[in-house]
Write a structure and sequence with these properties.
Layout (H helix, E strand, L loop, with lengths): L5 E6 L6 E7 L7 E8 L4 H18 L4 E8 L6 H14 L1 H5 L4 E4 L5 H10 L12 H18 L8 E5 L5 H10 L3 E7 L2 E4 L6 H11 L11 E3 L11 E4 L8 H4 L6 E3 L8 H9 L3 E3 L1 H4 L2 H10 L4 H26 L3 H21 L3 H14 L5 H7 L1 H5 L11
Parallel strand pairs: 3-4, 3-5, 6-7, 6-10, 10-11, 11-12
Antiparallel strand pairs: 1-2, 2-4, 7-8, 8-9
């Protein structure tokens, strides 16, 4: 499954120091895709782990793509001009990879869809504009995964208390979805700290503050009690959604974690040993590559001309059932949920790779249509209609089960 895997240290042409890294876990027809993040401490080991998660994610939703991740060494809180300058230098340094589509970047921690598009345009590469940020679709599947896990545990969403670690591109729309489902979001956090209110936070107000002030808004909010990030896991809650960095839930956190359901918005937020202990302790932890697959699925559907309401409808009516089936199978087999989900993802990825690299006549016709669409010769609404059957088959089929 690690066909085409490699890692690249990206050097800054201006000084010869590392500018960032690219990790490719797998390829299909020489292509791999995944988020490009910006953080001062991003590491190659981190990106290798995240690239593997991307392979599993593409496999789970059955999309013909290899898994990759990249990282730029920089402060995501710095000014727009400095951020853009760093991204332009990074793009220039990896231009051969970008031109050959050996690595296709998307937004990630510390970057936005608009910044990635501008970065590619700065080196003469065109990327078709997506109508909506992929974070809203990621939030959609994280929410549905949490709802499926809640059903498995006999928990009413309307009475649940929710904690969201990472109030960013995924965490903000995710909080809104919980509020609309009449759950109480009692705590959120950013890189600067957290805010806690047992009666429920005013998410609309906090979103406005975050958009105006950036992540530091938690230090200046009167919405609730200011708490350290490390205390977030101790907050009395039913559902915990890690949507920040990797490895934020470790073995030392298991005993003090109050929630009985985890739905992972970030990639690799729970260490393998911690995830195993959580499952043994009766905590349902929906793996990252399952819970947050909405970004790649919804982003691809958006590219093909689907409207947001159509994407969310598919996620709501098909994705939750798939997660329910995984949880049931894991319980019936006495296996950890991740193990069951990985088996599905790996099998599907290998099948997609085989079909893509050895296409049928119908497959070749479909690819010609996508090429023409990229060139602007086929209208988006026609592509969206013709792709309905294709996308309905992306989410693994599952029978309806009662717990």
């Amino acid at each position: 499954m690690n066909d085409g895997s490699r890692t690249i240290v990206v050097e800054d042409a201006r000084g010869g120091t590392p500018l960032g890294y690219v990790a490719i876990d797998s390829t299909i027809e020489g292509r791999a895709a995944g988020g490009l993040r910006m953080a001062p401490d991003v590491s190659l080991d981190e990106l290798k782990k995240l690239a593997r998660a991307m392979t599993l994610k593409y496999g789970f939703v059955g999309l013909p793509q290899g898994g990759a991740k990249a990282g730029v060494l920089g402060d995501s809180e710095q000014g727009t001009e400095r951020r853009s300058a760093i991204l332009r230098r990074f793009a220039k340094a990896i231009l051969p990879l970008l031109e050959r589509r050996e690595y296709v970047p998307y937004s990630d921690l510390g970057t936005s869809d608009a910044e990635i598009r501008q970065m590619l345009e700065s080196v003469g590469l065109r990327r078709q504009h997506r109508g909506h940020p992929s974070g809203i679709y990621t939030a959609g599947t994280v929410f549905e995964a949490a709802r499926a896990a809640a059903t498995a545990r006999g928990l009413s969403m309307e009475k649940s208390r929710v904690v969201i670690e990472g109030f960013g591109e995924v965490g903000r729309p995710l909080a809104g979805r919980f509020v609309r489902a009449r759950a109480r979001v009692v705590a959120i956090s950013t890189s600067f700290g957290g805010v806690y209110n047992p009666c429920g936070l005013d998410i609309g107000r906090l979103r406005s503050k975050a958009e105006q002030m950036g992540s530091i808004f938690v230090k200046k909010s009167a919405a609730g009690e200011s708490i350290e990030k490390s205390r977030l896991k101790e907050v009395p809650a039913d559902i915990f959604c890690p949507c920040a960095r990797h490895d934020t839930v470790q073995v030392s956190d298991v005993a003090r974690l109050a929630a009985r359901i985890l739905s992972c918005g970030a990639n690799c937020p729970v260490t393998p040993e911690a995830e195993r202990l959580l499952w043994q302790g009766g905590v349902v932890c929906v793996p990252d590559f399952v819970a947050n697959c909405g970004g790649v699925l919804g982003g691809t559907m958006d590219f093909c001309g689907w409207r947001p309401e159509e994407i969310f409808s598919l996620i709501e009516h098909r994705f939750g059932g798939a997660v329910t089936g995984l949880i049931r199978d894991a319980m019936a087999k006495g296996k950890p949920l991740r193990e069951v989900a990985e088996d599905v993802a790996i099998t599907r990825w290998q099948e997609v790779k085989q079909r893509t690299e050895h296409p049928s006549a119908a497959g070749r016709f479909f690819r010609i249509g996508i090429t023409l669409y990229r060139a602007g010769w086929v209208p988006a609404r026609l592509v969206s209609r013709l792709s309905t059957r294709y996308f309905n088959g992306r989410i693994p089929q599952s029978r309806n089960h009662d717990f």
